[in-house]
Task: inverse folding
């Protein structure tokens, strides 16, 4: 597999992480180094690990998860999206959300939801007998970078539009989940 192919694959896989990070960046009161690092590191780590896990499991598990992996991603993203929409309504314009989505279970849920497609890529690479370590490293680095860029961009939008962006961010997460489901159904 050529480097250009791997890079294209990594960019494609990073798009969900990028969109989610824009939504998260838009709801933060300020963009500090720790939340930026936490989200970028975890999204990159999960995007790195999932292809390896998929590759190791190979075709043994494909028949068991291929029918509902997209529903799992949808449910995880919809849960966080609905939570963000709810919080955008219950906070006034001057009071930002107290919940930090770059912590605890929200961070883990978002990391899994944005990297499930990478698991399928790992499964595919196992079937094609492609070495997995180098592509996984590139996928992880690209996802972490795109996440950081998305958070910075999202924060600029959040500073300009306030809680409206938290609402829009929630809708974006739900839309990503719906897109994942439609992609598997169509």
Result:
């Amino acid at each position: 597999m050529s480097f250009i192919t791997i890079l294209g694959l990594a960019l494609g896989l990073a798009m969900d992480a990028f969109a989610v990070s824009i939504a998260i960046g838009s709801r933060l009161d300020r963009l500090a180094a720790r939340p930026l690092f936490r989200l970028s590191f975890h999204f990159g780590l999960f995007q790195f690990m999932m292809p390896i896990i998929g590759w190791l499991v190979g075709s043994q598990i494909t028949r068991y998860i291929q029918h509902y992996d997209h529903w799992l991603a949808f449910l995880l993203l919809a849960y966080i999206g609905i939570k963000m929409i709810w919080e955008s309504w219950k906070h006034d314009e001057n009071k930002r959300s107290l919940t930090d989505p770059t912590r605890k279970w929200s961070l883990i849920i978002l990391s899994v939801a944005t990297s499930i497609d990478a698991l399928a890529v790992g499964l595919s690479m196992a079937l094609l007998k492609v070495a997995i370590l180098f592509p996984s490293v590139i996928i992880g680095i690209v996802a972490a970078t795109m996440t950081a860029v998305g958070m910075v961009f999202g924060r600029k939008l959040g500073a300009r539009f306030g809680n409206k962006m938290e609402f829009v961010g929630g809708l974006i997460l739900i839309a990503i989940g719906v897109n994942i489901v439609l992609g598997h159904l169509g």
Q: What stands out?
A: Residues 93-97 have pLDDT under 50 and may be disordered. The longest helix spans residues 133-161.
